[in-house]
Amino acid sequence: MATSILPFDIPPSFRLLAHEFIPSLWLLLHALSLLYLSLYFSFKGYKRVYGVLTLLTLMGFARATWEAPISCPPAASLMNFGVAVGVLKTLDIFARRHHPRTYAGRPLPPSILALLLTTELRYESFTPNPIRVSTSPFSEPTDLALHIAAFAALQMLPQEHAVILALQVLLTIYILWTTLQLILRYHDSPPLFGPLYQADSLGGFWAKTWHNAFASPCTSLAYHPVRRALSRIGLPIDAARSGGLVAAFALMGAFHVYALSPLIAREGLWRVWWFFVGNGVAVVFETALWGKESTMGRGRRRGRAVLAWAFEIGVAAWVVRGCGVPEGLGGIRWAEVCEVRPGPVGIGWFGM
């Protein structure tokens, strides 16, 4: 009988993951290389070749999930996330093909420009881009440490309360994304998030505080098309903009539903989608209720902030209750995260 050289046994599901993940990752990288080639030929002026390669790129991303499926739910979710990002980026660039982004620095060869456009989520080297400049400078590493401390403090509270879990999910997303930002960013990259504790409205939370890594595809694939369509049928411009805004949130909801589908049951996925759609509708109503920022006094700002956070945490808690989120880090059975165990909540990988 063969014995392992490791002092512990590797669960069979992890062994299976090692065999499944590499082929899936290879297919994902193959699709990414097609995206790079499409952009290279676009910069060289071969528009028809760009169109064909764009179609092949989309087919390549789709192939990565159905040709080499992954059994481990968290790993499958991560792969879905990569595929969804690739599809959104490809469609976003194609939607803007008649008014492409231009490089903001000195001229570079097409090979380098294509590489930058392929790898930058916020298109930092190009104009236009969705990057916002914070009006109140802050230290991103210091702010990350503060949010890690808040997450650690929440771990000490009773974990059965959905509000506590919702706050932890919010902080987890912030911590993971900001950590990646600090590792992968350029030396002069602007912050990805604003401080969460400074958000005083739903509109401000989504526009100024939360990350806008996917603002570009949401704008080109949802906001602009829906706004133009509603304007053509005679709706007032404010109504058309509101419809476009809700459509952008709906697209982001669909993105998250696809990425999380290996982890969460249908009821939970519906709640995730309604979380985003509900936030889009709430931002529209908030703007109509409170009016312009410049006309608000301090008391109205505080009232708006209280209502905004009550709504955000309340809806997030409702989503958490339907998704089987583990009760703190101690509620995760780490050795069993790759086990597929059908249960009453999702697929049971959380160990609930």
Characterization of the model:
- The chain is an all-alpha fold and 352 residues long.
- The chain folds into 2 domains: 18-127; 140-336, no CATH class.
- Helices cover 64% and strands 1% of the residues.
- It is built from 11 helices and 2 strands.
- It has helices at 12-44, 47-66, 73-95, 110-119, 140-155, 162-184, 202-209, 215-232, 237-260, 266-290, 298-323, and strands at 102-103, 126-127.
- A two-stranded antiparallel sheet has the order 1-2.
- Helix 1 (12-44) runs antiparallel to helix 2 (47-66), helix 3 runs antiparallel to helix 9 (237-260) and helix 9 (237-260) packs antiparallel against helix 10 (266-290).
- The protein is globular.
- Mean pLDDT is 87; it is low at 343-352.
